[in-house]
Automatic annotation (TrEMBL):
Domain Rab-GAP TBC residues, every copy: 78-329
SUPFAM superfamilies, A to Z: Ypt/Rab-GAP domain of gyp1p
Molecular functions (GO terms): GTPase activator activity
Annotated protein name in UniProt: Rab-GAP TBC domain-containing protein
Domain of life: Eukaryota
InterPro entries: Rab-GAP-TBC_dom, Rab-GAP_TBC_sf
Organism placement in taxonomy: Eukaryota, Viridiplantae, Streptophyta, Embryophyta, Tracheophyta
Amino acid sequence: MSSTSWVRGVAGSLINNSGTEEVEAYFPTRPECRADVPKTRFKPRVGKTLSARRWNAAFSRDGRLDIAGVLRRIQRGGIHPSIKGVVWEFLLGCFDSNSTFDERNELRQQRREQYAAWKGECQKMVPVIGSGKLILSPIVTDDGQAIQDSSINSDSQLCEGAMSKNDVVADKKVIQWKLVLHQIGLDVVRTDRALVFYENEANQAKLWDVLAVYAWVDNEIGYVQGMSDICSPMVNLLENEADAFWCFEHAMRRVRENFRCSTSSIGVQSQLSTLAQIINVVDPKLHRHLEELDGGEYLFAFRMLMVLFRREFSYVDALYLWEVMWAMEYNPNIFMLYESSSLGAATHKDGATTVNDKLLKQYGKFERQYVKTGHMDQKSALAVFLVASVLETKNKQLLKEAKGLDDVVKILGDMTGNLDAKKALNEALKIHKKYI
């Protein structure tokens, strides 16, 4: 039985039990990895964490969601593990909070059919997709020539089906896509390998399939290392593969520019520039020190922004951090904004400046500040202020011990898995308030 199926069997239970033990029951760690896994600080708390009971009570009889009440609860204490996946679908704009049960069921079915069609296109080109196996070695050369004897992690029939002997691909899009399939496979087998969930090869293949289909559909970005870190929790939390794909696709709308890299620029360049401005305003002494160390471009913060702190926090704490960030940045127009744009193209921000009090409550408290103050020119993601809060917690050590960029990287690297998500968020909000 998959861990997701098991979770569904205990979904209504235990919020009063020992928090750490309860979370471990939902995201079990392989015994041999426990000594190396960072300590989890998140614990479901009665009256603060969004529980299954409170979540179900937030819907009207026909299925409309009281998003304002849900956001307040998430911002106070995160989401109980039993309902994380379904709540994320709303936070990420997969569904409109004002839609009915019937409308959402219809939309979900349409999306599942669309995913099946895209996956079918991919299977015709590479039959390993959807087989429960994955590819770990290149299957084509840069010019589209088939590579024989690839170490594809599947049976020989599927290997032969992946590329016929005289198969030469002329379409650049197809070549580009086939070139990344093995890289996706290599990343997948390294992603969250401490979780019992990914001991199951079928679950690894599910993650590979979702990423492979996404790379085909969003060919402008394709696949970039780090995407597996964003996608893995969706595959873990949502049992249906198509639902996991759409949850990931909507998450990527928020961060896909992070993965747009060229020889002259990196995707998070603008965020790093904003980070430099923020530190210069709130802690000019630290900013000057980093500039003297030739770190004024803040490239040492690249990874934190790229994969949204997946390496700086434990697995569970990273999920808590994400959902609180998404709740704080929630915009009630997000669903309509996404539906009116092409796949992967929209950002989650809009230009709303005047809203009534009732609508204002439907914004997350970070987003609400921008709407209330009208500081649209200083608009930037909460993630940037989170990095600023991390730097501030290490202010004294950085000023005292960092004699070069290697020292900065080491000091920040020593924090990996040991940060407190709640404290970091609170500090980020203080810095944001000071900055605007």
